[in-house]
Every structure is written in C-alpha cells, then in structure tokens.
Design a protein that fits this description.
Length: 231
C-alpha cells in the first residue's frame, strides 16, 4: 500500500475539531468522503484517530452457524490477519458486507492494541463495548450487538478497496475520526488536506477569540461579516 512518512501527521493530527477541519478541506477539494455517526459512531466521546487505513472485507456465510460449528468448520475471521499486516499507527477498517453480528470485541481490541493499531472503523457491529472502551482503543462502528459473527462471516479480502458507509476506502487512504464521525482522505491528498487544516485552524482560533472578546454584538457582526457564508 502507498505510505507517507509517518512524520506527515506531526503538525496537524492533534488539532482540535479535526474531522470538521478535514471535512471542510475535502468539501473544498471535492474529494474523499465524510461519514456522520449514522454510518459509524465512536464507542466513547473522547475517541479520536488519524492514520493510514489497512482494510479487511467480509461477506456473510450461508447456512446456520450452529450447523457449521457442529461440523467443526473453521472460524473464518480476519481481524488477526488485518492486525498482522498493520504497521504501528495504522487504522484498521473493516467492511462487514452487510452482516449485522459482531466481528470484533474486547479480545480483538486487545490484539489490535498489542499490534500498535491506532484505531478501528467497523461498518458493521462490535461487542464487548465496555471492554473495548476500557482498553483505550478508539473504535467506530455502525452498531453494537452481543451476537458473534463467528460462523456467520468469511474474510475474503485483505488490503483491498472496501466500502464503508457506501464510500470506498483504499489501503493508505487516511482515516480521521472523532465524536462527529469519520473522514476518508485519499492518500495523495493528505499533504494538501493537512496544510488546509492548519490554515483553517488558525483562522478559527482568531475568530473564536474575536467572538469570546466581543462586547458589542453589532460590531461583532460587522467585523466578522466576510467570514459568513451568506449575508
Ligand atoms: O470472539 C469474537 O468472535 C469476538 C469477540 O467477542 C472478541 O473479540 O472479544
Ligand atoms: Mg469477546
């Protein structure tokens, strides 16, 4: 997969409100994708991540899980393989192919942490939410369920293009996530988006200070008129 030098994250990955800054940059560039929390929501409010994607795609398995289990069928999960191909700081992105049972839980989260994975985005379900939150691994998912995906899914692709919330994620694209949702930055646009985020952050900080210090709201409207979308 294509990779930027990890130092590319140094200047902007910790900016406050990062998904909003990235979403604005992607909007201006007409590129990438932004997914709100109806698609994938964080398990806890303080979760945030910024890093390159490694990807896994599942499909549903036909037939009854109990029959597969009784027949001694293998569990065809791919999360451990995904973590094995990840470099420290990567974001594990899992496309569950519409399957609604849980493809990861507390054990998987611990495995991800041990591998140095920075966070997980699951278009599908997770379980053991308390254990995941307690582990400190940032995780976004479409929903949660106690029901395991074992014998209900089969891993079919590792580090291939996947579909998250109807939008493509390619290995090496950057995933930015926080309480607002996630953004998908195409690999080649990461430097441009980083630069735009820094500029926008400076502008917003100045505007925030102007608003906080204002004593006359009419004057504030006049002073900030050029920053308004419509007047
Ligand atoms: O065991 C599973 O299938 C998923 C799970 O609960 C875990 O990773 O802890
Ligand atoms: Mg578990």
């Amino acid at each position: 997969m294509p990779r930027h030098d990890p130092s590319i994250l140094e200047t902007w990955a910790d900016l406050p409100g990062l998904t909003a800054l990235v979403a604005d940059a992607l909007d201006e560039l007409g590129a990438g994708a932004v997914l709100g929390t109806r698609a994938v929501a964080p398990l806890a409010p303080n979760m945030r991540v910024c890093g390159p994607a490694v990807t896994l795609r599942y499909v549903g398995v036909q037939g009854e899980p109990g029959i597969h289990r009784a027949a001694g069928a293998s569990v065809l999960a791919g999360d451990r393989d995904l973590y094995a191909v990840a470099s420290p700081g990567d974001v594990a992105v899992v496309d569950c192919g519409g399957v609604t049972s849980a493809v990861m839980g507390g054990l998987s989260a611990q495995w991800a942490l041990t591998a140095g994975v920075a966070g997980c985005v699951v278009d599908g379900a997770v379980r053991d939410a308390t254990a995941i939150v307690d582990s400190g691994l940032p995780v976004w998912s479409r929903h949660r369920t106690p029901l395991a995906a074992r014998h209900r899914v089969e891993a079919i692709a590792l580090n291939d293009v996947v579909n998250i919330g109807g939008r493509p994620v390619r290995p090496g694209d950057h995933i930015v996530g926080d309480l607002d949702g996630i953004c998908i930055i195409p690999h080649q646009l990461v430097p441009t988006v980083a630069e735009r985020c820094l500029t926008a952050h400076d502008r917003e900080e100045r505007l925030m200070a102007t608003i906080a210090d204002a004593t006359d709201l009419d004057e504030l409207v006049r002073a900030t008129r050029s920053t308004r979308v419509a007047d």
